[in-house]
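Bumping with the actual sequence this time:
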Amino acid sequence: MFIDIHCHILPGLDDGPGTMADAVAMAALAVADGVVTVVATPHVYPGLYENTPQSIEAVRAQLQAELQQAGLQLEVRIGAEYFLEPGILGRLVEDDVLFLNRESRSLLVEFPAQQVPAYAESLFYELFLAGCRPVIAHPERNPELVNADLLERLVHRGALLQLTAASLTGQMGRSVQKAAEELLARGIVHLVASDAHSCRGRTPQLSAAAQKVAAIGGESIARRLFYENPRRLLKGEDVAAVRLPGAGRAPGSWWRKVLGIVK
């Protein structure tokens, strides 16, 4: 079983599915792959995706009803993916955010695609002061961020890191896959999620990535990344980072050897 804490499955809210039928098709893929719970996390991006807790919940309720009618056993929870920008602090003050877990104030945030803003560390400091537990989405896809010491500092202060399943399977390119491998080697990854947007490309399927992790670290480590840690996150419990056996000896090379990847 899998719990997917980052998925763009709600129709018409962002760059995810355009119709309810598309969203139901995504849900069917997830269920067939072993996903039992998915957190719907549409983008909240000022000037582009002005989603609110109310608008997101309304569509989530519609989708859950459609899934029940279709006989698909998938729990859809509510969340959002917030672009890391200073205005996020105002949203917190106004209680205008959707946490992955409200009690622990776990907030899914994404960096800009190719850079680390100068304000990033101070903004995280303010988030920590506000009692938030930031969950950093797909850091492996930001080449500047993945090579920065900032990630270790943020994790040390309480942030969580979430990799994308498609990064681990190589679907997002060799450089992104290598970055994901190296983050696992550094022992600072807590979660893997689909970040799915459709039934093609980045899909709501986790089993292929879980099998690759299990081939190296064993079933128990795969279960922690794909089920136990997501479950603990949604319950507001502590979540520990995962380090795969042997990862510290030669980051990247051990993974390529096991998977038969040739440079």
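The tokens above came from a reply further down the thread. The CA atoms of residues 214 and 221 lie 7 Å apart.
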